[in-house]
Amino acid sequence: xxxxxxxxxxxxxHKHVVLCDLFAAMANADGSPKLExxxxxxxHLGPGGYARxxxxxxxxxxxxxxxx
Length: 68
What we know:
Layout: H1 2-12, H2 22-25, H3 47-63
């Protein structure tokens, strides 16, 4: 979480950087991972995680006019 906070601060200092916080998109309020987004090893994304990833980054791509 400390690393993510530092990255967020760094990104905010650069107008051409857009931060996509996938950790927040796939975590519970207490910071634990939402297991429905991960595979059996609880480390790598499963199908639900990839769907959430697309859901999270699509608005950023639209903002940057990078959508297909």
